[in-house]
Amino acid sequence: MVHPIPGSGIAQTYLIVDENDGMMVVDVGSVGAARAVEDFCVHTLMRSLQAIRIIAATHFHIDHIGGIAALLSKCSPKTVVLFHPLVKAYLKAHRPLSPMRNWVTGLFPTLIAGGFFGIRKWSDLAFDGPAGVPLPFFCDCQRVSYWGRIRYLEGNRLPRSRIGFGGWEVIAAPGHTEDSVVFYNEASGELITGDLILGRQDGRGYVNRFCWDEGQSQRTFSALAETLRVRIIFPGHGPVIWSAENAFQKVGGGGATGKAQCGRYCRRKAADENGQPVVRSRR
């Protein structure tokens, strides 16, 4: 079961409880988010943070990783951090983060519509450090204190694989960034999308235009929509998107582009440029 953490601030943090009562947290974006997770576990679930097995991120941006160290310091020594393999290059080889596009037409409208991403307290703007800032002058600041606790998805474990937590899988979802992933539970039809899809107050969603590659975001969205059965979409920012039959039907292709129109375009582009969709069968 997925629990959106109330008051998680700059990005939406999610806590997943599996059938064995283990816990996994996705997208701890600030110190405030880490404190919100602790408050939810202790006072709502009546659980200790020691039960958290995995802390994961949908992508390596500061608003999705900026509170990992704060939360990890209160978890079990066996708790691991799960990242896409490209993050190893960011941390160890000083590879620059994906350059972002559409700052004005993509980021600013989202900030305004989302009430500046839910910032309510100063700790929502407190981070472990500057790692994950997608700007050139921060390229030498990609360091984290918990590097020894990181587990990278390697080799054939992407583009789609189980992660050893309940029935959850991780699927490569490039577009917003090169290292973006989504987390999917086929049995429950739940999908945590990070910043690929953003939610709106009217219960619908849209493909995020603030991204590394807008065309790739559209192709990824199309491949996911055609491949997965999803009832509930948990976006990186904004309200949950729900449908008893197909939650993707409530997601537009970005801006004024509808899903059906986007799907036709994306299928053609995927065939022409890649030869196959982003999502493939598990190995």
Description of the molecule:
The strands form three sheets. Strands 1-2-3-4-5-6 form a six-stranded mixed beta sheet. Strands 7-8-9-10-13-14 form a six-stranded mixed beta sheet, with no helix packed on it. Strands 11-12-15 form a three-stranded mixed beta sheet. The protein is built from seven helices and 15 strands. The protein is globular, with a radius of gyration of 17 Å. It folds into two domains: 1-154, no CATH class; 169-283, Metallo-beta-lactamase, Chain A, CATH 3.60.15.10. It has 283 residues and is an alpha/beta fold. The longest helix has 16 residues, at 259-274. 25% of the residues lie in helices and 19% in strands.
Classify the beta-strand content into a percent band: 15-25%
Radius of gyration: 17 Å
Oligomer: single chain
Question: Any idea how many domains?
Answer: 2
Shape: globular
Strand order of the largest sheet: 1-2-3-4-5-6
The overall strand count is 15
What is the fold's blueprint, element by element?
Layout lengths: L1 E3 L9 E4 L5 E4 L4 H14 L7 E5 L5 H4 L2 H5 L7 E4 L2 H7 L10 H11 L36 E3 L7 E3 L5 E5 L8 E5 L4 E5 L2 E3 L5 E3 L6 H14 L4 E4 L5 E2 L8 E2 L6 H16 L9
Parallel strand pairs: 3-4, 4-5, 5-6, 10-13, 12-15
Antiparallel strand pairs: 1-2, 2-3, 7-8, 8-9, 9-10, 11-12, 13-14
Helix pairs in contact: 6-7
